[in-house]
Each structure stands twice: as structure tokens, then as C-alpha cells.
Design brief:
With 314 residues, the protein is α/β, with parallel strands linked by helices. The protein has one domain: Deoxyhypusine synthase (Deoxyhypusine Synthase, 3-Layer(aba) Sandwich). The protein is built from 13 helices and 8 strands. A 6-stranded parallel β-sheet has the order 5-3-2-6-7-8, with helices on both faces. A two-stranded antiparallel sheet has the order 1-4. Strand 6, helix 11 and strand 7 form a beta-alpha-beta unit. Helix 10 crosses helix 11 and helix 11 packs parallel to helix 12. The protein is globular and about 60 Å long. The mean pLDDT is 96.
Length: 314
């Protein structure tokens, strides 16, 4: 029995030039070089989350000095909160050695890097069936899977190359483009049906899946390196990236043996089951350290970055 399927060729698209975007370049975080921020950190009580926060910063600095991975897994909200400049600054200082995205995060990064704006008003556009119907975003993102197939690239690297090689004056704000420039692995892990580009008739599910699967294998290889001092942060991904991380770690342990004695930390606006279980608890159950911080990304991540730089320069 064949069930009826909708014809996506009937989709009516809109232009990103007419779409209302909630995040533009002027909204992004401004870089701040702390003068005596380490003094503030030292003044915090040595109990509970204040103690954990200083401990995480120490673990990050230790990992950097040992040449161990500093992997940041990013949910889409991190980019929508305007935090790309502070993360790029950390990348330039080699305080991020790997980036992991879900599909939505990569889409926001692409839009920001090509057009200097992102994040539509979902409630408003959903009402009229225009949610996710920007043709330029779908065209640029979906065609990247063809580039990935031709050049045997992962989806993250292909997106980074596409943005970096373009003429947009906004590409300096793209995490993926900067990862390509700095030769930092950036992987994108899609779940078909979850992202706006999957709504368009120019979506290539086979090619996109193959490119994302290549990224999974790249991430598995990176996970083998986190033993004995690496740090993995999950910032704002409630489901997909904690699940991907758990599987990638299992693959690394299956092939390379013991991968333990590393630090994980989760940052989100409220406690969630999968990040707490699959990032903070299970991976470091026998050996290692798992930490959790609750707070708004637009405050917590600049705060963390300032703390890292202050202690590193101490």
C-alpha cells in the first residue's frame, strides 16, 4: 500500500530580504578584555556553583596547556543569542578546538555569515505558512551537500568552505567559516524533518545524510582524543547533540579502548534529562568530572569566556 505524499514543489517561498529577522549584526555581543576579572572570580564563595565555575575554567586552561581537545557543542539558541563573536575570539585563542552543531545551529550560522541576520518570528510566520520558507537559505544550505559529495567533505566543513569563499562582508561572524579558516573540525548533525531547509524541494536527503554521517565519524575520532584531560561543553542542545555525543563516545571507546578522565559541562536555561544524563553523568560515571550550570546563554557564555581569558593571562 502506498500512502499519499505531499508535493514540495508546490511550496511558495519568500526572500530573506523581506523576511523579518530578530537577530542582526548590531545585536551581537561586544568583545571585552577583562582587566581584573580573575580577582572577581577569586572573590566568589568556594561552594556550590561558584566553586564549580572556577573549577571548569581551571580544567579548560589545563586542557589547553596539555594540548587536549576543547570541544563545544552548540544548540541553535547560542547563535540566536548573538554570541558568535565571543566564540570566534575563543577559537582564535585556541580555547575551542572543535565545534559541534545541530542542523538549526548551522542554519543560523549560515544566515548570519551570508546576510548578517537570522532568526525569524516563528509564531507570526507559522500562522501564514511562511515559516522556514526563505528560498535563499534553503538554496545555499541544501546545495552544500552537493559540494560535500564532490569534494568528500563533511557537512560542517563544506558549509564553512562555502561561507568563507563567498564575498559576503558578514562571513567574519560565521563560526563555520572561521573554523574552516583555522582548520578546526566543525561537525553538523542533522535530523531529517527538524530543519527549515528540509521543507524545500531542493533538499537532497541522501547527500545531506551522507555528509552528516561523515561528520559523525569525524566526531568519533575527536572523542578518542579527550581522554586524560579533554573538555566537552554542551551549550543549549537538549536532545540531538547529547545523543550524538553519547554514541560518538561509545564508538571511540569500542575502537580505542579506555577514553576517560575528561571533563564535561552543560549550560542551559533549565535542567533537561538528556544533557544531565548523557553529558554530565553517564560519560564520566567511573572516572572524570561532570558539571551543570543553569542560566541564560547571553550572560553565562560571555561570563565564562571572560573568566577563561582572565585566568589564562594571570
Amino acid at each position: 500500500m502506498n500512502f499519499p505524499e505531499i508535493d514540495l514543489k508546490k511550496i511558495k517561498t519568500i526572500s530573506i530580504n523581506t523576511r523579518k529577522s530578530k537577530v542582526e549584526i548590531g545585536n551581537l555581543v561586544k568583545l571585552w578584555e577583562p582587566k581584573n576579572f580573575s580577582g572577581f572570580l577569586n572573590s566568589l564563595p568556594k561552594i556550590l556553583k561558584a566553586s564549580d565555575f572556577n573549577l571548569l575554567i581551571d580544567k579548560i586552561i589545563s586542557a589547553r596547556k596539555k594540548g587536549k581537545p576543547l570541544v563545544w557543542m552548540l544548540g541553535a539558541h547560542v547563535i540566536k543569542c548573538g554570541l558568535s563573536p565571543v566564540l570566534i575570539d575563543l577559537m582564535n585563542k585556541r580555547l575551542i578546538t572543535g565545534l559541534v552543531f545541530n542542523g538549526a545551529g548551522a542554519i543560523h550560522d549560515l544566515e548570519l555569515g551570508l546576510w548578517g541576520k537570522t532568526s525569524e518570528d516563528v509564531a507570526e510566520s507559522l500562522e501564514t505558512g511562511k515559516f522556514g520558507m526563505v528560498r535563499e537559505t534553503a538554496s545555499e544550505f541544501n546545495s552544500t551537500s552537493i559540494l560535500a559529495a564532490k569534494e568528500n567533505l563533511g557537512l560542517g566543513q563544506a558549509l564553512g568552505k562555502k561561507i568563507a569563499s563567498g564575498k559576503s562582508s558578514y562571513k567574519k561572524y560565521s563560526l563555520l567559516a572561521n573554523a574552516h579558516r583555522l582548520k578546526i573540525p566543525a561537525t553538523v548533525h542533522i535530523a531529517i524533518g527538524t530543519d527549515i531547509v528540509h521543507q524545500h524541494p531542493n533538499f537532497y536527503p541522501a547527500l545531506s545524510g551522507e555528509a552528516s554521517f561523515k561528520d559523525f565519524k569525524i566526531l568519533c575520532e575527536e572523542m578518542a582524543k579527550i581522554k586524560n584531560g579533554g573538555v566537552v561543553l554542551n551549550v543549549g542542545s537538549a536532545v540531538i547533540l547529547p545523543e550524538v555525543f553519547l554514541k560518538a563516545l561509545s564508538v571511540a571507546r569500542n575502537i580505542y579502548g579506555k577514553v576517560d578522565n575528561f571533563t564535561t559541562a552543560n549550560f542551559d536555561m533549565l535542567p533537561q534529562y538528556r544533557p544531565m544524563t548523557n553529558v554530565v553523568t553517564r560519560p564520566v560515571l567511573k572516572k572524570g568530572l561532570g558539571l551543570n550550570f543553569v542560566g541564560h546563554h547571553e550572560i553565562m557564555i560571555p561570563f565564562l569566556a571572560a573568566g577563561i581569558k582572565a585566568k589564562l593571562n594571570k
